[in-house]
């Protein structure tokens, strides 16, 4: 939820017993073009863990580069969610969000091919039992529109 799911709100939710919190949508293009405001959406505190970063974009290569940037941070998230369900007109017109559901080959097969084969995201052996970081975060692909 843009403008709502900031760190203070996520910490409040964790105090209420929520198991997983998610950042607001983060533009892959904003990250690769080094937009400071976009990069600030990636900030979270350790008390928010487990925390997911929700990326959106329309190009698998841009998403790969943005994912690499997210994972290279000193404190990477526990999960990266690729948004494929946002119905907001501005997002859909750009070819991101729910627009990806209209092209399953690009939305799923293309993304998995680009991300999985270039980044070691889905290997459970890279994870440890707690929230300590022993390897890359997993990548989550939605199976139905939100």
Concise overview:
This protein has 146 residues and is an alpha/beta fold.
Walk me through this protein's architecture.
The protein has 146 residues and is an alpha/beta fold. It has one domain: TIM Barrel (Alpha-Beta Barrel). It contains six helices and four strands. The protein has helices at 7-15, 28-32, 36-40, 60-71, 89-93, 104-118; strands at residues 21-27, 51-56, 79-82, 139-140. Strands 1-2-3-4 form a four-stranded parallel sheet. Helix 4 links the parallel strand 2 and strand 3 (79-82). It is globular. The model is unreliable at 121-134 and 141-146 (pLDDT under 50).
Return the CATH architecture.
Answer: Alpha-Beta Barrel
Q: What is the makeup of the main sheet? A: 4 strands, parallel
**How many whole angstroms does the radius of gyration measure?**
15 Å
Helix content: 25-40%
CATH homology group: Aldolase class I
CATH secondary-structure class: Alpha Beta
Residue runs with pLDDT of under 50 for 5 or more positions: 121-134, 141-146
Q: CATH fold name, please?
A: TIM Barrel
Itemize the secondary structure elements and their pairings.
Layout: H1 7-15, E1 21-27, H2 28-32, H3 36-40, E2 51-56, H4 60-71, E3 79-82, H5 89-93, H6 104-118, E4 139-140
Parallel strand pairs: 1-2, 2-3, 3-4
